[in-house]
Design goal:
Elements (H helix, E strand, L loop, with lengths): L6 H12 L14 H16 L9 H16 L22 H18 L1 H4 L2 E3 L3 E3 L1 H18 L3
Antiparallel strand pairs: 1-2
């Protein structure tokens, strides 16, 4: 698993994002490249712009922590065409350049804040996570979708 908190490895994700164009085609799934970038931004919005999203209620949070969390923060990669939580589904077209810029900014901010800022930080859906769990969640989600678009 790559380390999103490491400057060189974070730059690797940025370099991959910079290879995308508005014409990039998916290898699987339904999202267009602009929707994929917006989709990837949701993970970071829940950290840096939580007011944009509704927090899960008690029962939903219990289910997320018990059944979804291990799959999201674990080391195992996501399979193609994995189910997506409703708040991550982007139905409308987005501005490619804007979403790309936002995603790169979020990656840079996360790397600059560093591992220490995330160790024990409360997740929107999963409660407190260790820094490695945050890393796994960020890194494998990015890797999954960048691979989806061949970069």
């Amino acid at each position: 698993m790559q380390d999103i908190f490491n400057a060189k490895e974070a730059q690797n994700y940025i370099d991959r994002i910079n290879k995308l164009t508005p014409e990039s085609q998916r290898k699987w799934g339904k999202m267009t490249v602009d929707q994929m970038l917006a989709h990837c931004n949701v993970t970071y919005e829940m950290v840096y712009e939580p007011q944009k999203h509704r927090a899960p209620g008690g029962i939903a949070k219990f289910i997320l922590k018990s059944f979804v969390k291990p799959k999201v923060v674990g080391e195992k990669s996501y399979p193609q065409n994995s189910p997506t939580a409703p708040q991550f589904i982007i139905k409308e077209n987005k501005d490619f350049d804007s979403e790309k810029k936002r995603l790169i900014g979020f990656i840079q901010k996360t790397q600059q804040l560093g591992r220490e800022a995330f160790d024990g930080k409360e997740s929107f859906s999963f409660g407190k996570l260790k820094a490695q769990e945050w890393n796994n969640m960020f890194a494998k989600h990015l890797n999954h979708h960048l691979s989806q678009f061949g970069v």
